[in-house]
Please model this.
Amino acid sequence: MTSGYHENLTFLKSLFPFNLLEDSSLHQIAPLFEQVSLAAGSHVFREEDAADALFFIISGKVRITLHKKDSINTLSLLSIGDHFGEDSLGKNAFYSTAAVCETRVLALRISHKNICSISNGIPKVWSAFSLFQKTYRLARKISLPWRSEEETLHLISRRHPFFLFLRVILIGGGSLLTFAILLFFAFTSLELSLFFLILSILVLGLGVVITGWAALEWTNDYFIITRDRVLVQKQLIGFFESRHESPVSAILSTGIDTSVWGRMFGFGSVTMRSYTGDLRFARLPFPHLIYELLEYRRQQAMLETRHQEQAGMRSSLMQRLEPGVTQKKLIKPKSSVKPTSSVYQTGSFSDLLAKFFNLRYEKEGSVILRTHWWILLRKTALPGLFLLLVILGIAVRLIGFFSLFPETLVFLVALFLSLAGWGWWFYQYLDWHNDIYILTHDQLIDVSRKPLGSEERRSAPIKNIQTVEFTRKGLIGLILNFGTVRIQIGNEELTFDNIYNPSQVQSEIYMRFKEFSERMKRNEQQRLADWIKTYDEIRQEKSKEESSSSGIENE
Model:
């Protein structure tokens, strides 16, 4: 079960954060790792087992499961280069998750004792282990429905705790100071003591609410790095929610920015640059380490893509050159795309209304989206009010008012106004109904057609997507779950405005982008394999011709 020193050293050089260390440090820590082989289906550890080791996967796949209530949920499906057993990095006595080998697994194991030894001797590794541990804790607590189990989480981070402390001190301290001043006036003033007492209590209560709200807002801002993408996820409780993401492959470069205060307290900003703009991780702890992690992920993403292309090319060549090879022997790269689930999967009242108004439906593999029913209500509110006033006018005439006007005239006017009102209402309904967004396998389409008027159609290829962002603004948007999805494609921006469940739509667009990219890679591999097969056939024909020619000459 123990491997050689040089094998451990070579593998450690390819792992974050050990790739940041000098050779002398690597030579020092390599003997502390033990190479272990684990059979498929075996448990590396179970929940409540002693947390005594951290593992780095050399080959194979490991499923991490978490027991919640009466069900067992998959936290991640890990593969080459990933790590697990983060409970051993802290003071936890037991593992809070279970690890099961999906295939035969080869891994490097380091004991808790050796982890402490490395952390104490190498500050950079200690910082990385701290990030591992915080990411693991947050991954267990928060829900990320947009992520597939194979999309490994490499980082989940909030802003530096200094900014939470600053908010609490400024808002809470200001509230307490104001409360103390008002309370002083309440005890010293003879005529207005009751007024100042009530005002001081109100100020204190308001200060507690605002301080709590500010703290919750800090806890709901996340900066996330996965195997495939980087994200900034924000929520301003009661006002705003957004998620801005970009594929790792779309990042051109990364940068880091720190101030004097940032260097003193250990925070800074990391910026990712793409063709269309910047994605910024602001006020993060360990900014230099997160910068290195991003660079590592960019390089690994390119290597993984190259390996997948080689595996796919090998499979295509074997199919072309050896048609009799069984499918079991072919190497087929597995898709990392998570199947898109239905939007109406919760059974909530919002989902029922969305289904009733047909806000999303599928046709011939394409997804058609309409703007939210709240927009329909807003559009038809004025014509609806107009019709209500017409009905009210008729009712008033029937009970005896406006008797100066003949009933026939009133009813004729009411009929004309009703027809005009219903025409207005139906026009607004058609205007809402004809405003659709279409997701096909290779395009995003925005169709806006005015009733009895012009039609405007904008489209963009999925393959050119750079970033995808969604926002939900305002209390109504948050309660009714609708907002805007912005897709940056080259220098153009395509927006899906006021659609139901924008988070789900954002995920679906991203998944279609992944599917399209993988499909294009497979097609390119097949095309190249056809060329190679054609070349091989031509070479064989030439060889036969040369053999025939030489045989004739010999005769």
